[in-house]
Structure formats: C-alpha cells, structure tokens
Specification:
Layout lengths: L2 H16 L5 E3 L15 E6 L9 E6 L4 E3 L2 H5 L11 E7 L2 E6 L4 E6 L5 E6 L3 E7 L2 E6 L15 E6 L5 E6 L4 E7 L2 E6 L11 E6 L4 E7 L4 E6 L4 E6 L9 E6 L5 E4 L5 E5 L2 E10 L4 E10 L4 E4 L5 H5 L3 E6 L6 E5 L6 E7 L5 E9 L1 E6 L2
Parallel strand pairs: 1-4
Antiparallel strand pairs: 2-3, 2-29, 3-4, 5-6, 6-7, 7-8, 9-10, 10-11, 11-12, 13-14, 14-15, 15-16, 17-18, 18-19, 19-20, 21-22, 22-23, 23-24, 25-26, 26-27, 27-28
Length: 374
C-alpha cells in the first residue's frame, strides 16, 4: 500500500470515528407498511446485485428513525421465484408504486411503495431506465439479450407501457443502446450511448413527440451518454462517460429552447437534482495512478456554475467507490452509496448538508440507485 493511500485511510478512519453514530441495520424480516405521509422519510435503495446471480434487491432506510431495512423486497414477498431478479438498473416512483428496471431479467418490476408487495411486471428486454408521463411509463431498451454482442448498427427502442395494465402498448426505435430518459414539455428525451460499439460510441440525444409517439430528430451532444435530468428552465443535464481513453468524462447541458450545448470538466457516475442544485458523485479510473479517483460536486443549474467540488468529506469519499446519490428534500442530508469492490456488501453514507459525515450502514451488493419519494 502506498503512503498516499495509507494516509487517506488513516484520515478516513478518524472521520468515521467522529460521526454521530451508525444507522441501525434491521435484517429480521420485519417490513412495516407506511402511510402516504410516511413515504417521504424513506430512502429506497435498489441494489444491483451480482450479474447472473438473481441477487438484485430493494431495501430502504427510514431516515427519521435511522433504521435500515435490508432485504426488504425479499422479506415482503416470501416465496417469489428468483426474488427481484438479475441486475437492478433503475428505480423511479409513479402513482404510489416503485418501478424497478431489472436489466438481466428483462423486466420492469412494479411494487407498492408502502408495503413493498409485488404488483406485477412488464416485460422489456435489456431494459435500462424509466420515465413517466400521462399514465404511461417509458423504458429504454437495448432491444436484445444482455449477452448479445451487437454490432454498431443495432438500434435500441423505447417501450411505452400502460401503467394501469402493465402492458407494452407500443415501441419506438431510437439510437444505439439508449440509456437515460426524461419527459419534459410534451417531449421525451433519450440519450444514446452506443455502448456495444466501442470505440464508435453514439453522441446523439433522440427527441420524441409524446402526443404521437414519433421520433422527431437527433441532436449531437456528447459521446457515450448515460444519465439525464431536466431542470425547471427547459434545460437537460447529461453526463458523458467519454471513451475511456482520450475523451474525458464530462457534464453537459442542452438547452431545449435555444439548442445550445455547454460542457464542464465534471465527471459523473450518478447525479440527482434537488431544487436548483445538481448533486454529483463520480469514480473515474486514473491510468497513471492505476486506481479509481472518487469525486463529488454541486452545480447550480440556475446560474450554470460549479459551486462546489467538495460536496462531502473528502477523506471519507477517498476511501469509497461512490455509486449512487440522493438528497433528503426535508433535511438536505446527502446520501452516497459505496459499491466497494462490486462483490462485497455495499455501504450507505449519510452526510449533513455541509458535507460532514453523520452515519453509515451496510447494504446489499452494489447499491446503485437511491430514491426519496416526494
């Protein structure tokens, strides 16, 4: 172990010792139902699990009591075949239900948000992310089995799902290997990654008219895009992973009204928008140091300025593989998940709004998707 890493771990140990207390882990199988008024205190965590092992799981932290309910989906649905499934890829809330995109199991699992009881599923091959509008769910799909080594010509699609019946009522092809999706002002915006076509990545954003469910156009933004968030000013915030070589990861902003694209040298692994603040965590591989470099940032979307590059305690962050991020809309506490080595159980850290570490708790494998219900 090098001296830099030894020093970082020592500082991190001191920071952990100084935090208020660890959250309480509850793995007893008790999953208390919640009323609608209690839902905002729940931070839902979709753990991706280990690929090919059907170990995806839905868990949650009661942010008020500081109790973390491990294996919550499994405990609420005993006897479910293959449990939640293989590789949790996205988690969103709509109509009193949680929608979990389970990539390797080729489905979208729909769960009652209060009880975590399974309500049903929609079949979508190699699903990626989900958005909602007007009683429909829209899910991006690579449109092929996860083991398929597709050529660069294979285009993915968006599946349109009736949220009442869970039936796929329509599909629409977009770019190659679509990822993030968001609905804004009567349009769907889909970022295309081209992730199967290394190094010829996609760099387009597909624009879909919701009324007719027709693709209008493609807009060039950045290579290998993954996530997208819409602010209240008609702008879309997108991250580019880069090409893992001479194109660095960046944060981009596409103005839907002017058509302009701006770029910042801010790497992004996960991001969440709370008010006018875009909270970001990242883990970027450094070829020279031969290690992943964790980072965090806050961007003011109103002014389009990076207001912080030290969102949370740097010493604690340096010992993590930050993988997911969420912000409590009531307290503004910042939550960051740690994927660790992508095999061992993960960790969930809670920081105060000023970045000071407050607590941590163990989670399932690869806690990737964090969601507060507002």
């Amino acid at each position: 172990m090098n001296l830099y890493k030894s020093f970082s771990l020592a500082v991190c140990a001191l920071a952990l010792a100084a935090c208020d207390s660890d959250d309480v882990l509850d793995d007893s199988g008790n999953v208390p139902p919640a009323s609608e008024s209690q839902l905002p205190s729940r931070l839902f965590v979709l753990c991706e699990g280990l690929m090919g092992s059907n170990t995806a799981n839905l868990e949650y932290l009661d942010a008020d009591s500081s109790i973390y309910y491990a294996n919550a989906y499994v405990n609420a649905n005993p006897g479910t075949v293959l449990e939640l499934g293989d590789v949790g890829n996205d988690l969103q809330y709509y109509g009193g239900k949680l929608w979990a995109v389970i990539n390797g199991s080729n489905k979208v699992e729909v769960v009652d948000a209060a009880t975590l009881k399974r309500k049903g599923q929609a079949e979508v091959p190699n699903g990626r992310q989900v958005a909602f509008d007007g009683g429909f769910a829209y899910v991006t799909s690579y449109a092929g089995p996860i083991v398929d080594k597709a050529t660069g010509e294979q285009r993915g699609y968006v599946a349109k799902i009736d949220t009442a019946t869970l039936a796929v009522v329509d599909t629409l092809h977009v770019g190659r290997q679509p990822e993030g999706i968001v609905a804004l002002d009567g349009k769907l915006y889909v970022v295309n990654s081209g992730g199967y076509a290394t190094p010829a990545y996609e760099q387009t954003l597909s624009v879909i008219d919701l009324a007719g469910f027709k693709r209008e156009r493609e807009v060039a933004v950045a290579v290998n895009m993954q996530h997208i968030r819409a602010d209240r000013y008609g702008r879309l915030w997108v991250n580019s992973i880069g090409n893992y070589n001479d194109i660095a990861p960046t944060l981009c902003c596409y103005d839907t009204r002017s058509g302009q694209v701006e770029t910042w040298d801010v790497p992004v692994s996960a991001m969440t928008l709370q008010g006018d603040s875009l909270y970001i965590v990242s883990s970027t591989w450094d070829v020279t140091l031969q290690r992943s470099i964790p980072a965090s940032a806050i961007v003011n979307v109103a002014t389009r300025e990076v207001v912080s590059r030290n969102m949370v305690d740097a010493a604690v962050l340096d010992a993590m593989v930050p993988y997911g991020v969420a912000v409590d809309p009531r307290t503004h506490d910042i939550f960051v998940s740690d994927a660790r080595d992508y095999v061992s159980p993960g960790l969930l850290y809670r920081f105060a709004a000023d970045g000071t570490l407050k607590s941590k708790v163990s989670t399932g494998n690869v806690p990737g998707h964090l969601l507060f219900v507002e």
